[in-house]
Amino acid sequence: MDDLRREVASRLRNSLHGREIDMMENRIELPHMLGITPIGKIHDPHNEEMTILDTKHPFWQEYHETVNTKSAVTEKVETAIRSLKKDDIFRMTYPFGEEAEVVYVEVDKMGIEQENTTTCMECDAEIVYNLDLVNNGSSYFFEVELDCTECDFTGKFERGMTRA
Ligand SMILES: [Zn+2]
């Protein structure tokens, strides 16, 4: 779920990082946190179309799991936020004490994935490839996608690992 965490972290960072938010005056819901609705404005669910809260958004269309209901999307995003909080990437502090109900929000930039490279088996050019660890419920597998920009070579490789 690291791709989801990165996606969510960058949205949280854009809308919340470095801000002091008065929780008495503003009702902060998920769409505010994700920058779909500005803080201080009342959220209208009609504005969610084609945002990250919509199953039709390209992110979910390309996601490795099927996420096809509104509640599943919300749950995924909320889980990602909880995980970012747990890892201290997303932090909320109370600069004036908790009773003041003003929170100061910080969201770290999540590191860019390290680039993996290999040599094309057709033309010896350098290829940057993506390595994904996929969990399909009962087992894990690595998936490598190669696409050479110098020649027409493309390839997809998988290596599975099942629980012993
Ligand atoms: Zn090649």
Distance between the termini: 24 Å
Residues in β-strands, percent:
25-35%
Total of DSSP H or I helical runs spanning 4+ residues = 4
Class from secondary-structure proportions = alpha+beta
| Unreliable sequence segments | none
The molecules bound to the chains, other than polymers, are: zinc ion
Strand neighbour order, sheet with most strands: 4-5-6-7
Main pleated-sheet profile: 4 strands, antiparallel
Helix and strand sequence:
HEHHHEEEEEE
The number of distinct β-strands equals 7
- Nearest-integer average pLDDT: 89
Percent range of helical residues: 10-25%
Roughly how many Å is the radius of gyration?
A: 20 Å
Shape verdict: elongated
Topology:
Layout: H1 2-16, E1 19-22, H2 30-33, H3 58-61, H4 70-86, E2 90-93, E3 102-107, E4 116-119, E5 126-135, E6 139-147, E7 154-162
Antiparallel strand pairs: 1-3, 2-3, 4-5, 5-6, 6-7
Bound molecules: zinc ion (ZN).
Task: Explain this structure.
This protein is α+β, with helices and mostly antiparallel strands and 164 residues long. It contains four helices and seven strands. Strands 4-5-6-7 form a four-stranded antiparallel β-sheet, with no helix packed on it. Helix 1 crosses helix 4. The longest helix is centred in the middle third of the chain and has 17 residues. It is elongated. It starts with a helix and ends with a strand. The mean pLDDT is 89. Zinc ion (ZN) binds next to loops.
